[in-house]
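Retro notes, item 3 of 5
We never archived the inputs for the magnesium ion complex last cycle. Fixing that now. Sequence and ligand:
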Amino acid sequence: MEEYKIPKHVSIIMDGNGRWATRRGLKRSEGHLAGSKTLEKLAIHAIDKGVEVLSVYAFSTDNFKREQAEVDYLMNLFIKMFSTKFATLKKKGIKVVFSGRKENLRDDVLKAMNKIVNETKDNTRGILNVCLNYGGQEEIVDAVKKIVSEGVDPDTIDKNTMYHYLYNDLPPIDLLIRTSGECRVSNYMIYQMAYSEFYFTDCLFPDFLEDEFDKAIDAYNGRDIRLGGNSEKEE
Ligand code: IPE
Ligand code: IPE
Ligand code: MG
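Structure as it came back at the time:
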C-alpha cells in the first residue's frame, strides 16, 4: 500500500464568512468572528498532523474596497486574535509570520503583528503564514523591486532563488484549498502555486473544521502528482 502523504505546505483561501453569517440571519461580522475561531483550531490541527507550513488568506489588498465598517471590524479582530487567541499557537510551538504590504495597515495592527512575530520567532514545530493586506501580483512586483534595488546579478536568478525575494522564503504550495464554492484564486500566492493540487469545497470557512481539513488531505492522497513527469500510479 502506498504511504499516506501529508503535504508540507497547505494554503487556504478562507472564504465564505459573510455568507455563513447572512444564511443564519446574522451580521457579516459574526461570520468573521466564527471564521477566526475556525482558523485557530485548524492551525493547531494542521501542525499536529505534520503539515510544516500553513498559509492562510486573511485579507487581500482588494478587501480594502469593502465598506469601512467591515474593514474596521476585521482590523480590530486581527488585533484581538494576534494578542490573545494566538497564545495557544505560541504554546504549541508554532511560529507566526505575515505576508503582505505594510502600507495602509493601521499602526495598532502593525504593532500586534510585530508582537506575535517576535514572541514566536524561535518556535520550530511549524509555521503559520498569515497573508494580510496581501496580493500575489503585488508580491511579485515587490520581489522584483527588491531584486533591482539590491543590484542582483541577473545571471544568478532562477525560479528557486525567486522564493528568497518573496515576503517569506517558504516552500512551494502542495495543496491549495478554497472554501465556499468559488473556483478562482483571487490574486493569492500565484508564484508558489505553480504545481499545487487544488481542492475546492462548498463548505463555508467557519464550518471548515478538523474533519473537513482531513477530507482535503484524503483527496490530496488520491491525486496523481506528476510535476511534468510520468505517472507514479500507472501500472
Ligand atoms: C472571507 O469571507 C473573509 C475575508 C475576505 C476577509 P468573505 O467575507 O469573503 O465571505 P463571503 O465571500 O462574502 O461569503
Ligand atoms: C479572497 O476572498 C480573500 C480572502 C479570503 C481573504 P474574496 O471574497 O475577497 O475574493 P473574491 O472577491 O470572491 O474574488
Ligand atoms: Mg468572499
